[in-house]
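Lecture 7 notes: from sequence to structure.

We start with a single chain of 740 residues. Read the sequence below before looking at the structure.
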Amino acid sequence: MTTLATPGLYRQPVEPVRAVGRLARGDIAVFLGYCRRGPLGRPVRVHALRQAEEIFGAALDHGYLWHALKGFFETGGRAAYVIRVATTAARAAEVTQRASALSWRARASFPWLSIDPRKLNRAERAEAAAWIQVHERQVREEGPRSADPGVWGNDVTVTVTRAARARTEARPGVYEDGYALSLASLAGIELASVLELSQTGGDGTTAVVHLQPREVDPVRGLIRIERPLSAFHPGRSIRVTSVEFDLEIRRAGLLEQSFIARAPDPAHSEALSAVSARSVEFAPVPQRETGAGWGPLPEDLARSVLAAQDWADPAAWPDEGSFTLSGGTDGLSKVRGADFRAVLAEVRRLPDAALIAAPDLVLPDSFLTAGDPVAAPGPDCASLDPLETGQVTGTVFGTNEAGETVALGGVTIEAAGLGQQVVTDAAGRFALTGLPLSFVTLRLSRDGFEPLEYRVQPSPFASSAGQEITMTRITVPRALGTDEIATVQAALGNPVEVGPYKVAIVDPVTAAARLDDLLTWRSRLGDQPRLGFCAPWLRVGLPGGGVTEVPPSGHVCGAFAAAERDRGIQRSGANLALRHCEGVTLAIDDAAQAGLNPVGINAIRAFPGRGIRLNGTRSLGADPEARFLSVRRILDTIEKSLERALHWMVFEPNTLMTRAAVASTARVFLDQLWRDGVLAGDAPEAAFSVKCDEENNPADSREAGQLVVDIGVAPAEPYEFILFRLGAAHDAVKVTETGQ
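Now the structure, written as tokens:
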């Protein structure tokens, strides 16, 4: 600093500092796995288990994703992305009303606008900026709805009923040479309305015409039409009714949503095709006839056909009646490791995600067993009259691998508690006789299908129609081989596949893994500095009672998220109690952990009185300077935050002041991290260094338009071992705590 000798006012330039903003978050996880429903292969951000259930359905009997999410949120996680994994064979249930040039199709679909993050308040929107971009890109590229595959859609029924919101009449007399009508009311009528005009003549016959207004004049109470109504008598009034439809959507017989008075024209403000249904998209579909039957037109051609469609033509309206969706498949029976790797491109597009878990990657073969039979009510022993008997006949249907409904042969049908049992023939038909006329519970079972209990009342009369019973196919995901699991787990820690600034928590291959199995699997994964291997599996409670075993990755991600939000990114998830778990599948003591810790296997242990806790946070990296996951996460967060904060310097003048501003901004940011305990060191000089001067930016580099900033940091490492030394000193016990 220049020595000041004369009193007065002096100007001294100050190094400019740009605000860095908030530290980049490292608590947002992304989960890959199997779901009952929801968009396929696309990330959806959720903030609670209830929200995840609304989008992706209830817990699967053959999946771990639900338990991972529950463990994540209950342990302390606040936000996570969920990506549903399935094969390309997954199909959305649908039904097309008729085979014609224009039909109406109901298809199971997911409404993206129902989770629009732009509706969040200002504070929440600031935290969800990356999710807003992902959501906007999805709507922009694929539209406001996307197919929602799964057998869940096969239980959906759509009922269409003709309705009319606008009912009025045209006053006697025609204005302006027959091309305009004066209506008593224009309520509910707009340009895209389809109107039904009817008039009863003197002979009792009724003339009916359908049209759309060319112009609506609310000031004069007129509608202008394309052609004169030559079939109508000008001296009589004309009844005017809007053509609209009510829509009901039921799932498993229960009303889910209803929409009243919707118009067939998509341009109408209350269009039938624009209903915001949670489960179903109902829209007109232009079709063409091919050798295999009728099929939808290409999207571009379909739009032009719909734009030129005459919606006053009754052939363009939907048919009335109830229509059940079918053909939905989960696409899980042939799932492979490649299907998990296929969605990693979506993980790469999530800049705010920092933790990755794929609990269903280690899903074993699953089998469902039937429950206990339900006994039918016995006969009335007080009555001496002979019992009347009846019979039940019917046909059993199910879906094949392609989602097509077919008759099921070989279905075992038992009259519960009555000792009668039959098997359906090749056409799916069955007959049970000699049954009491009171209600009887039929228990249906067949390999590959969910056991079904069907309550029915036998009839004393023979029936040719009988019962039509539909069974649901069990979609059990294929268990991946160890080679596939190892390949996918390695990909989860590869920044080329999942993007930068992310670490993954991987699981043991099986719940039955012993110490030797864990060591063998760890050696197979090799040098992976962005992987954390945590073991063993956890025992968790089931929603309906009982206990099952699940991988621990979701719970561990929740521990890391909770630690960061409570103390900061420097705090690892170790030594925090894991929620939604009741035990571990392998008891690990101090001696056993002594063999796991040095090779980077993080033990999950049950401590008496302290619950179940993660007792290590090491990575699978070979570099001793990055052996802790917390160190890797600190470096990622600093790099991500500085990359965002220093983005302004691109295209700035290549001057001394620009370099000084960059260096000052970085120093202020790192100094605050040191004060918060993120960086180690007794002083800022020992915690970090920033260099951006002419030495690392020589003239030739500056002339090439390059600016180099060299930053060194000393991340705070966790204490793994606390030693207490006890000794007697002058009649007192002295305790000295040392870290090692």
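The longest helix spans residues 656-675. Keep this in mind for problem set 3.
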